[in-house]
Design goal:
This protein is an alpha+beta fold and 148 residues long. The protein contains four helices and five strands, in the order βααββααββ. It is globular. It binds adenosine-5'-diphosphate and magnesium ion. The site of magnesium ion has 5 residues, from helix 2.
């Protein structure tokens, strides 16, 4: 099947420092805002992206420093597809990791709800991961305001 060409496309990368969680929210918002979303759509996209980026930083790279890659694409009809990729430790069991309340964090700081939040806010969430190689989370949301 022929791949649809995006109407707009952004590729960015940054080091896995926690200050860049808020940078990723702003980048996602700035990109999505160009497609005339509702306030709710904009908030949802920002929140989902920052959950995925936080995971890349705190779980993917843990105590190491790596690079987080984001691509955002807007397709004709208003579908936004955002990927968040790390080359960190990877996830042993993706199905388990996606279960609400599942967390490998032992300090009590994290509730294990990141994937649940992403799923709640987006139309589709895909996770590809290989142990030792990294993780790619793909978030999709169709903007209702844009019907053509
Ligand atoms: N990018 C990632 N790299 C490695 N492990 C991850 C990544 N994203 C998520 N995980 C694993 O999935 C679990 C669940 O993630 P999440 O639902 O966001 O909950 P939390 O971040 O609160 O632990 C994490 O505890 C972690 O073990
Ligand atoms: Mg999380």
């Amino acid at each position: 099947m022929k791949r649809e060409k995006p109407e707009n496309l952004m590729r960015v990368s940054f080091p896995s420092r926690s200050v860049n969680e808020s940078l990723s929210r702003s980048l996602a918002a700035a990109f999505a805002a160009l497609a005339d979303p509702t306030v709710e759509e904009l908030c949802d996209i920002k929140t989902a992206v920052s959950e995925a980026v936080t995971n890349a930083i705190v779980h993917g790279y843990r105590n190491t420093l790596g690079t987080v890659y984001i691509t955002a694409a807007l397709y004709p009809g208003g579908k936004i597809v955002i990927t968040v990729r790390d080359r960190g430790c990877g996830i042993a069991d993706v199905e388990k990791a996606r279960e609400p309340l599942y967390t490998t964090c032992t300090t009590g700081e994290r509730a294990g709800l990141g994937f649940a939040v992403m799923e709640e806010l987006m139309d589709r969430v895909r996770v590809r991961s290989r142990l030792g190689e990294g993780t790619t989370v793909t978030l999709e949301r169709k903007l209702k305001s844009r019907s053509c």
